[in-house]
Amino acid sequence: MELIQQLVNGISLGSIYALIALGYTMVYGIVRLINFAHGDVFMVGAFVGFYAVTSLDLGFFPALLLAMIACALLGVFIERIAYKPLRNATRIAALITAIGVSLLIEYGTIYVRGAQPEAYPSTLLPAKSIEIFGVTISSQALLILCTSIVLMILLQLIVHKTKIGKAMRAVSYDAEAARLMGINVDNTISATFAIGSALAGAAGVIFGVYYIKIEPLMGIIPGLKAFIAAVLGGIGIIPGAMVGGLVLGVIESLVSGLGYSLWRDGVAFIVLILILIFRPSGLFGKNVKEKV
Amino acid sequence: MTAFKRINGFWLSIVLALVFFAVVQLLISGGMLNSFYINTLFFMAINIILAVSLHLIIGITGQFSIGHAGFLAVGAYASAIMTMKLQMPFALALLVGGVAAAVAGLLIGIPTLRLKGDYLAIATLGFGEIVRIILLNVEYVGGASGMTVTHLTTWPWVFFCLLMTIIVIANFTNSTHGRACISIREDEIAADSMGINTTYYKVTAFVIGSFFAGIAGGLYAHNFYIIQPTNFGFLKSFDILIFVVLGGLGSMSGAVIAAILLTVVSTFLQDYPETRMIIYSIVLILVMLYRPKGLLGTQELTSFFRLRRAVGGKQNDNKHTVA
Amino acid sequence: MLKVESIDVFYGNIQALKGVSLEVQKGEIVTLIGANGAGKSTLLKTISGLLKPKHGDILYEGQSIAGKAAQMIVKQGISHVPEGRRIFANMTVEENLELGAFLRKDKDGIRQDFEKVYHLFPRLHERRKQLAGTLSGGEQQMLAMGRALMARPRLLLLDEPSMGLAPLLVKTIFRIIEEINSFGTTILLVEQNAKMALSVAHRAYVIESGRVVLSGSAEELTASEQVKKAYLGGH
Amino acid sequence: MTTNTPLLKADNVGIHFGGLKALSGVNIELNAGELVGLIGPNGAGKTTFFNLLTGVYEPTEGSIVLGNDKLNGLAPYQITRKGISRTFQNIRLFGELSVLDNVKVAYHSLARHSIFSSIFRLPSHFSGEKEIEEKAIEFLKIFKLESFMYEKAKNLPYGQQRRLEIARALAAHPKLLLLDEPAAGMNPQETQELMNLIAFIRERFHLTILLIEHDMPLVMGVCERIYVLDHGQLIAHGTPEEIRNNPKVIEAYLGEEIS
Asked: Do A292 and D88 touch (CB under 8 A)?
């Protein structure tokens, strides 16, 4: 029973990782950039949600939507200001810029509102628990899980059924050929940032509701974990990010369940290094060799 | 141009360095520098060691490692164990700190240096985090509350280690071995096809860089009264990275200058950590956007003087001896 | 219809095209032949907006299109089938064709064109739900051409449609090129397969190290010894 | 000219990537001192073959033997030390290094001084570095590049970069030199200079050369024998005259007429 309980916790945590990982993977797929600032977009989403709930008295779903919109705008802004000028620069320059943007968002937030943490009101969602076969699942956890799943399905629909989704896939596969189709590559890249960031914003609100405490540096560790999830699933591959997120969440919960909760973060990084060494293309990826 | 002249230039630099050392030592023992300045000076030197050691890995060999604080931590804890738990002399502790970090560098370098670019960066970042988490969980070194350490770091030690670091890394760089590393940075496939054993040199540069980061760790640990795993998070790694990037990837003097400048800036902004980070990050972004090669690019400070001398006759030979 | 006026194009420091001029009249098939690396693909890429000429101008139906963004040029009615096909292998055949019509809003017209393309290439209809990456080389070439046709171009740029295909398939492809042309689409065809290209073209240009060295009607060039020389370097 | 054992023997060599066969059943023999061309249409597998010879890829079938050494499975740097060096289709110089240092890198494998002696500036470091420098300067003089010696390689004009890349490849003391489209992007005058250079280095270094080139006059003009690849397979082999009149080659290049 304990095991199943941990499994449920793991899936909840994993679905948050998955939501963040989707943004990493989509952005990487289209511009081959590890957007280090993505974890901080997640943090901003958590705060936007928090203020929407506390100051504007909005309910869960309106707050979620607001956070998603705010983060989408933030994502596009970051892309246009910091990354677009670097599209032909070296990968290292782009990576360092991303680190810079990440630090700027973190400490900019602290500068503006201070470093003190906030707590999401626990009354935001009805707190009932459901017991199934001896496993307690809070209705919150259930709602959060459902929200994540709905968002992921929505994303799949966008990517596969809409014009912009097809454009995104085309650009990430072959940007030059996409231009020959009449696709505006710049706009498509911005759209990718917008969608990925909106998902991170949603993850931020969900995280707040689930784990209560939020603070300006909260994005770092989940951001890194989500990145690991993306690598685990095969970076650039959307279903890979979802599976990677869930797998990582479950692994962490099991490690905690076995009584090694202090090693949880370490295990995630060990997974990362093992994956990079033995299967750098991830669970779902294909190996590509450099052209000479 | 001749070997004789180069040896001469080398000794000249050594003499200048020793004069600098003696002056500072006199100021310290004469009580003319207060502890704030002394401390800043120590920090500066430790940061220069870190910057130069990472410069060898990133700037010279082109291997994008962003987990350097991990080696700093290994060195710090290994040397602290030597002095605090085993009652060994400080000199031995520093050496053990360096060796422990070098071994860690070897262990992590052999498997991960096959990775390229972003992947290597992430793997090294992960390594740094793993080191921190291990330290956090090992009771022998105090877990989260850390280890108390005696203050043993003195100006002669700091200076000697700094000098060694610069001499070793500059001399390595200015040899056929350093050229092999640079050729890997410039084009790994071409280097391979020129008969360079690229894996060997990548790992070698990584191990040398880790060794000096470990030495810096020993100095760092014994400059405090306590060390904790939180001192070695990836923000620390980014700090070191910023020295190298701002100075100019591939320029040792650039890394040194950046380390000096940024140490001064952070000392002044000590009480405003957010402001410091905001300034850091904005500078980092602007430099990448407008001067992606950093302050000096791959040039060395010495080459600018040489250029001036070269006017009217001899060519600039672009050599950077110890300066 | 298309007029290229002494354009110079550079890749970094290397000049790939040196004062190239050529003309395509409405309804024609014009072919551009020459050895590997002569600059043929570069010219097509410059026309379709993937590269910008440093000097010179490109006029399409009287308007300058030199240096315009690729999507604007597609909008004006020029489609480019790139060398190596460059289909989106991770998408289905149908999705690839939909992307060809990316800029169009006329749903009925698009549906008609789907019919047309499937009629022209029945194979594609059979495999419309399959991932494009699983198609054979010849089918991928058909898909690339069909995809370009979905934009309903007035001018079609074809880059080496015969590359890497078995002789029988090459014949099929060329028959289809003639068929497309007979519907009124003007074609600028780049080919290494000179004999084949000349057999379907009205006029031809021979390009050698970034310069047009010869031009004329297809018959004239078929008879020319110089063409063979351009390829095999005889004396 | 020909000796009994060939310098290089590629026996039934092939490679596939995933399901895709890039090359198969390639048999090529090179005798010491020959200058041989390798031609074929785009995508025929010429550069892939070079990558197999130099260890960038490992062949999935067949064997490659240089002299008495089997090359399969060796790392690129080991193959270079056995005596094969190459230039690249898209020039791969060490751009930030000086012209002199580019050549010095090629002399690296001759260096006998250890990292230790360099770090502590022992006498062997100075003698070793001096030897490398003298040899490299000597070498640049042969190639008339000494006036650019201290210039960064990336600042050289294109033609000189090609020249430097060939010089660098030769500085690694190959028995067999592989040139991958050396005339790409050159004007006729530069191409002429290149042909002279190739003739010169052959004479001077007693080299065996395998040349990939699209510039047919160049290939036909300088090569003694030519191999033709198409669709990853050898379709012809012979003297330039034979190749020029070989119907299969003409078909591969000019294509077949519509009937």
From this structure: yes
Percentage with pLDDT > 90 across chain C = 66
- Do chain B and C touch: 3 or more Cβ pairs under 8 angstroms? no
Check contact C-A (3+ Cβ pairs < 8 Å).
yes
Q: Are residues C162 and C209 in the same domain?
A: yes
Task: Pick C163's closest partner by Cβ from D42, D250, D256.
Answer: D42
Of C134, C152, C170, which residue sits at a domain end?
A: C152
The answer to whether the beta carbons of residues D62 and D14 sit under 8 Å apart is yes
> C152, C172, C196 — which closes off a domain?
C152
Q: Are residues C148 and C160 in the same domain?
A: no
C193 and C220 in a single domain? The answer is yes
> Do the domain assignments include residue B214?
yes
Structural domain that includes position C120:
91-152
Rg of the Cα atoms in chain B: 19
> What CA–CA distance (Å, rounded) separates A132 from A146?
17
CA A289 to chain D, closest CA, distance in angstroms equals: 10
pTM to 2 decimal places: 0.88
Q: Look at chain C and report how many structural domains it folds into.
A: 2
Domain boundaries, chain A: 12-120+130-223
Tell me if C233 and D256 make a contact (CB, 8 A cut-off).
Answer: no
The residues near B16 (Cβ < 8 Å, ≥ 6 apart) are none
**Per-residue pLDDT tens for D187-205?**
777 888 888 888 888 888 8
Specify if C133 maps to a domain.
Answer: yes
Q: What Rg value do the Cα atoms of chain A yield, rounded? A: 19
Q: What domain range includes position B134?
A: 36-232
Q: Provide the H-helix boundaries in C48-156.
A: 70-75, 93-100, 107-120, 122-126, 137-149
CATH assignment of the domain containing B65:
1.10.3470.10
For chain B (323 residues), the mean pLDDT of every run of 10, in chain order, is 59 86 88 87 95 96 94 97 94 96 95 85 90 91 90 92 95 95 95 94 97 97 92 91 90 94 89 87 89 81 57 38 35
Whether A166 sits inside 8 A of C99 (CB atoms) is yes
Q: Which range has the worst mean pLDDT, A131-140, C145-154, D228-237?
A: A131-140
Q: Could you tell me which of D39, D122, D54, D57 has the C-alpha nearest to residue D87? A: D54
Which residue is it, tokens 């502890």? Answer: B35
Q: Are residues C157 and C227 in the same domain?
A: yes
Q: Which residue has the tokens 């470091």?
A: D125
Task: Quote ipTM for the complex.
Answer: 0.85
* Contact partners, residue D139, CB within 8 Å, separation at least 6: D103, D167, D170, D171
**Which residues of chain D are within 8 Å of residue A292 when distances are taken between CB atoms?**
47, 51, 56, 88
Go through the domains of chain D in sequence order and give each one's CATH number: 6-83+174-252 (3.40.50.300), 95-157 (no CATH)
Answer whether residue C120 is part of any domain. yes
pLDDT (tens digit, 9 = 90+) per residue, A221-276?
899 899 999 999 988 888 899 999 999 999 999 998 888 888 888 899 999 888 88
Q: Which two tokens stand for residue D94?
A: 């060490």
Residue D43 has its nearest CB partner, among C37, C164, C228, at C164
Considering only CB atoms, A169 lies closest to which of C70, C88, C147, namely: C88
Q: How far is CA A166 from CA C100, D140, D161, in A?
A: 11, 54, 43
Q: Which of A180, A186, A188 to mutate to test the interface with C (most CBs of C within 10 A)?
A: A180
**Which residues make Cβ contacts (< 8 Å) with residue C14, sequence separation at least 6?**
D158, D185
Domains: count for chain B? 1
